Structure formats: structure tokens, C-alpha cells
Amino acid sequence: MSRFHRLPLCARSVPRFHTGFRNGRRTLALTAALLFAGAAFASAQDTRSTREFRELADHVPSWARPENSIGAVPPDQKLTGLTIVLARSAAKQAAFDKFLAEQQDPASPNYQKWLTPREVGERYGVADSELQALTDWLKSQNLHVDWVAPGKNFVGISGTAGDVGLAFQTDINYYDAGASPKISVASAPLVPTELAPMVQAIRGLYSIEDRPLSHVQPVHSARPAMSVDGFNFVTPADFNTIYDVPSSVTGKGYTIGIVGRSRTDFADFSAFRKLTKTTFPNPTEVVPTKFGGVDPGPAYTAPPTDGADIGDQVEATLDVFRAGSVANGAKLLLVVTTSAGGDIGADAEYLVQTEPLPAQVMNLSFGLCESEAGSAGVKYWDSIFAQAQAEGISVFVASGDSGASGCDAYFSTPPSSPAPNSPNYICSSSHATCVGGTEFNDIDQSKYWSSSNKSNLGSALSYIPEGGWNEPLNGGETQAAASGGGVSKFIKTPSWQTGKGVPSARSGRYMPDLAFTAAGHDGYFGCLAAGGSSCVPNSSGEYYFSYFYGTSAAAPGMAGITVLLDQKLGNKQGNLNAELYTMASKSASAFHDVTVSSSGVKSCSVKTPSMCNNSIPSPTKLTGGQPGFLVGTGFDEVTGLGSLNVSKFLSDYK
Question: Under DSSP, is residue 80 helix (H, G, I), strand (E, B) or coil?
Fold first, then answer.
């Protein structure tokens, strides 16, 4: 019997809106719905005939085509989790951008003068009179204003599909576009002309199915040996050895906020700590009810018998393992809601809008490609992360697990006609640090791994040369499984993104910024009772443990490193990006540059997926798929600036 069995733990999340589909059949009274909507629309014409409206561009996804429509959303169906992203005036935006730059400039009197959410709103938010005009109009359209952010940059709303469609003068339909039906407006939404300048985007008018960026597999062993059939499993001790993480700082006094969609089983952490000799605390779990969050309920403590997908619990568990084991002294705050309760946006709003701020570092391990999320999706996260930067919060986002072809389903057979390359839309913001994946070039096992484990299960001997994470084959079948990266088509190249390897074209925000090991070949050791691998020996003394991989194993590692930095410097640091690119040129020894040479690939070609690129194979063979990017000296769109020598990074960071 094989020791390695794939678990179906990475299914796409359900859409934010309940679809009303059961057993593959729509339970909708479409004719009545359309007649109701038509009558309601006609009755509203008198109040709108004298008012001018303006379109909100880029709010209809490419899949919301008439031929994909499968009927209108019932007009009485409640739509929740809609968020209006407010726009500052040109003068206020310029002042805000200037202030953000000054916060990072040691020569400025505003250096590290972090703001509270309320101060962000008072200084740079939409004027109260404008905000009042917007909320008055929303209420006049029978929409409910659920919350207004203290930063005066977001307004949460809800209402029936009929009222939402009438307010924004568009139809709201179901579309056959993917594994499950999606919801979208059928045409560009309209807002009153006098209110349009303050509306950047509206999140939630179409489904964005954010996916957890990780995978897990169980292992059966007579004891928790960290080498099985040529696989090495990375423990906290191994990570500390490979990346030279010092024990002199632990993150004490600081908190890592983890964005999630599931609670966790604390027994997993207890078993993990016992075996790895780590001491991180259990996470505090919070549901962001103020921002529409809905409690996902208790975590699974054994494999579900109803066939439920546990991908969100896998993600939350992994993020806690990785952040906590790097920063044993830090507090861990896991903010969770269901996809029906505002999804991960409600979690992030809680972390940036709550006073006092609950965390100094934020980790987010979800994503989708820019092409599917669109401009509205990118603007939403860019606005949240800009506020986080003003408040001194350092944000880390996983770059994605399907290489440069970010729209492909990761860990799955690539499509025969892949979509154009597109990066993770949540990573696109220049106010967050995008973390990609590497893969160890450890063919000479005896040089880098001990044949036995220490009492903490550590077996790594030293730093191991790295290539880009790319595992295009799984049991002889091709798959998309590689470090996400590329260039944003919505966010311009930030001024600080310069240096060796950064494209001179300046065609957009380039991603990722950093990377750490994310490959399944040397996956991260963990315990997951819900996946059948509790790390507790059975009556025969046999163990089942798990190994996790994907870029969402890399991002929380960097979150943990950052609270070590905060503790060392005695203050939170906000957005690290500008200093990272400066350090890459002035303190190169703080980085492990990932190149074709370090990858160990001979005859490297971007047309053949390997550790020298993040290209994707075809459905049947390595070649003929979607070319991505090559690793190279300095920055590249696979591993960014490379991984870190953490001790050197902490000592050289200014």
C-alpha cells in the first residue's frame, strides 16, 4: 500500500452569494421574478428621470456573457458582503501617498508616525458631507448600510437582489461559469453622477472565488521520521537551520493577524508542539461580526464523514503552524468568517479598522488571478493594504500555486487552452509583500540532510541551494503546481521597485517580492486530525502525520520573521517593500539569490517547466504548455529577490 495518498483538500470555495441550486437543478420561479423586477423598475422611473448616472467601469467579468446566463437571481434573495470602495479626492490622495512615503523615510519627521483607523479617516477619508450624501442615497434605494469604516474608505451594504439591481440599474443573474454557478451584474453598474467621484469600486457585484493556496498529504510511518522514501519533511528546526533564524528573538510583544475561513483543532497544535519542541500559543479565534462575519462553526477533529471539504481548515492550520513556529513568542490572532459572511474581506477589515489595532502583521494565504477578479477586486485590496501601511501593519500575501498561469486550477491537470498569464490579484497591491515559492536543489541528500533526527525532529545540516518551485509532474501526470508570479495590469510599477533583474519596461507591479521553500518534495511537517494524520501513535505505535506545501506555507513564514524584526527594532515596521529592494543592492548577503545555476537545471528553457521557471506543462506532456518566467540574477517573477538569511536580514534592516 502506498504511503502517499492525495486528499481532496483544495476545492474552490463556494461563491459569496447562496446560489439557490440544489442537486443540479435551479429552484427558481424565473417568470415571476422577472415580472416582479420589471414592475419594481417601472415604479422607480419617476424618481430617476431627472437624475444623471455614470457607469462604473470594469465591473462585469469576462464570464458574465449572455450565452452563459442561466436566469435571474430572485429579486427577494438577500445579497450580503457588498462593499463600496471609496475614492479620495485627487488632493487628498496625493497627500496620503506623500505621507506614506514620509513614514518610510528616516529623515522625515513623519518617520514611523503610524495612524489609527480613525486618524486615517479624519485626515484622508471622504468628507462627512459626501459620505452622508452617499449613505442617504443608498438608503433611499432600500439598501441597508451595514457599516462605515472608521477610515472613511469603505461602506458595507446589503439588500435584496431586486433592490441592488434597481439601485445600480443593472440585472443580476446566475451564470454557468466554472464548477458552480456564479452571480454577476449583467451590465456596468450606474451611480448618480454627483456621487460617482467618490466611488472607486463595488466589491461583491460579481462572484470572486478566492482559493486557499496550499495542499496537504498524509504520511504513514512507524515513527515520525522526517525522511521517507527520499522525501524530507521540513520541521521548525529545519527551517531555522536552512534560513539561519536566530533564537535570540521570538516575536514576544507582537501579534500576527491571520486571515482565515475556518476555526482550528487545538489538539493538532498540541501534538505538533510536543514533537517539534516548539512553544507557540494556540491562536485566539475571532469572528468579525461588525463587518458581516459569520462564524464557520467548530473545526473538524476527525475526518468528516459527510464528505465535507476541509480546505479552509487546512489553510488556517498551516498558517498557524508556520507563523507560530518561526515566532514562538508572538501572539496569533486567527480572524475567521464563512464565504457568506463577507468572506476574507471581512477578516481584513477587522484587522485594519479595529481600535486599538489587534495585530502588527497580517498574513493572507488566498487568491485568484487578476483576469478573473478584475479591476474592482484589485482596487479593494489595494485600498485595504494602503490603510494597513499607514497604520504600520506589515502585510504578506501568498503569490499563488499555479505558476505564471494563475487562472489555472493548481495541483490539477492544465487546460488544453490556458488563459493568458495572470498573477494573484490580492498580491498586486504595492502596499503588501508578495511571497512566492522556492524548491530545494538537494539531490546530494547527504550533503544537506542528516540520516537521523534530533529530539526536535530536525535533520537539516545547512542552507540548501534553491530553484523556483515547480513540480509539473504528479505520479506521471502533468499538473499546474509552481510559484505564482508575473506583472499586474492594474497597478503601476512602484517607485521603489528597482534594481538588478527588475524589468526596465516598468509595465506594472512585478511579483513576487520574496520566496521561501514551498515544494511538496520537501513539504512542511504538520499534524491534522481532520485529515487522518493526528501525529498521535495508534495502538500499534504507528504514526500518521501530514506534510503541507504551496506558497501559503511561505507567506506566514515571512510573517513570523517580521515580528522577529519588530521585536528587535522595538516597533512595528509597516510595509517592508522599499527597504527590501534597497537591501538587495546594499546588503546582498541577506538574500539567497535564486538563479539558473542555483536551481541545478541543465539546458534551462522557459518552454519546459522545471525549477528554473514557473512555466506550466500541457495536459499530456511537459512541453507545449504555458511559458512563464525564468529565475535569474537579482529579481525575477518566480522568486522575487530570493529567500532570506534571516540573521543577516535582521541585523542589516534599517
Answer: strand
Give bridge partners of residue 547 from the DSSP assignment. 217, 525
- Backbone phi, psi, residue 642, to 5°: 105, -165
439 bridge partner residues: 467
Dihedral of the alpha carbons of 266, 267, 272, 275, in degrees to the nearest 10: 140
Q: What is the DSSP letter of 614?
A: -
Q: What is the mean pLDDT of residues 339-346?
A: 87
Residue type, 335: V
Q: CA 68 to CA 476: how far, in whole Å?
A: 35
Domains in the chain, start-ordered, CATH in brackets?
21-87+126-203 (no CATH), 215-412+420-438+484-592+637-652 (3.40.50.200)
> Angle, nearest 10°, between helix axes 90-103 and 370-390?
70
Task: Give the length of the chain.
Answer: 654
Query: Measuring CA to CA, how many Å separate 429 from each of 379, 432, 515, 578?
Result: 8, 6, 17, 13
What DSSP string describes 79-110? EEEEEEEE---HHHHHHHHHHHHHHT-TTSTT
The answer to whether residues 357 and 574 touch, using CB atoms and an 8 Å cutoff, is no
- The Cα 149–Cα 147 span in angstroms is 6
pLDDT value of residue 459: 93
Per-residue cell: 370: 487578476
CA 295 to chain centre: 20
Cβ-count burial 362-401 (b if 16+ within 10 Å, e if not): bbbbbbbbbbbbbbbbbbbbbbbbbbbbbbbbbbbbbbbb
Measure the CA–CA gap between 152 and 175, rounded to whole angstroms.
33
561 CB burial (10 A radius; 0-12, 13-18, 19+): buried
- Confirm if 168 and 185 have CB atoms less than 8 A apart: yes
4 burial level (CB within 10 Å; 0-12, 13-18, 19+): middle
Report the relative pairing of strands 361-364 and 199-203 from DSSP bridges.
unpaired
Picking from 319, 309, 358, 327, the residue whose alpha carbon sits closest to that of residue 116 is: 358
pLDDT in tens, 400-449: 999 999 999 999 999 998 889 999 999 999 999 999 999 999 999 999 99
CA distance 611 to 466: 8
The pLDDT tens digits of the residues spanning 27-78 come to 333 333 434 444 444 444 444 557 899 999 999 999 999 999 999 999 999 9
- The helix/strand/coil state of 538 is coil
Across 546-555, b (16+ Cβ under 10 Å) vs e yields bbbbbbbbbb
DSSP state of 197: G
**pLDDT tens-digit profile of 266-306?**
999 999 999 999 999 999 999 999 999 999 999 999 999 99
| Beta-carbon-side half-sphere exposure of residue 215 (alpha carbons within 13 Å) | 24
Cβ neighbourhood burial of 101 (10 Å; 0-12, 13-18, 19+): middle
Query: Residue 539: which pLDDT band, with cuts at 50, 70 and 90?
Result: confident
What's the rounded Cα separation, in Å, for the pair 381 and 406? 17
User: Which residue from 651, 572, 513 is spatially nearest to 394, judged by alpha carbons?
Assistant: 572
**Rounded (10°) CA dihedral 41, 46, 51, 52:** 50
Beta-carbon count within 10 A of 46 CB? 8
CA distance 322 to 115: 29
State the pLDDT confidence band at 617, using cuts at 50, 70 and 90.
very high
Following CA atoms 548, 550, 556, 557 in sequence, which dihedral angle do they give, to the nearest 10 degrees? Answer: 80
- Judge whether residue 368 has pLDDT over 80: yes
**Interior angle at CA 493, CA 487 and CA 496, nearest 5:** 125
